[in-house]
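Quick question, first post here. What does this chain look like in 3D?
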Amino acid sequence: MIRVTVQLIPKGDVSRAKTLGVMDIANDGTGDDNMGNYGGTLLAEYTGPSGRAGRVEKFFRRRQSVWSLVGAFLKLWGHTKHSPNHLRGDGSHPALTPEDLI
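> Answer (accepted):
Ran it through. Tokens below.
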């Protein structure tokens, strides 16, 4: 599992750090050596206690970086400037695929 934690650290004082969000990404084991399928959850102040869930499928894990995977989930949840309006990470629409990232 991959966990990305975003913290606000006022004036660099780590003792005052506040977590703004946490993203967990897990390979669901249904891919192969080159492509992975991933489930993810985003928890932040605005998501509520259950967070936002989503899937990224057919991710070329040997050719793309972990940051590309994180970016794919951010795009799925609408956190990029160029996010398509028809994709949502709530299970009501198809999972994001590499073709959606182009």
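Residues 8 and 67 are 20 Å apart (CA to CA).
Helices lie at 66-76.
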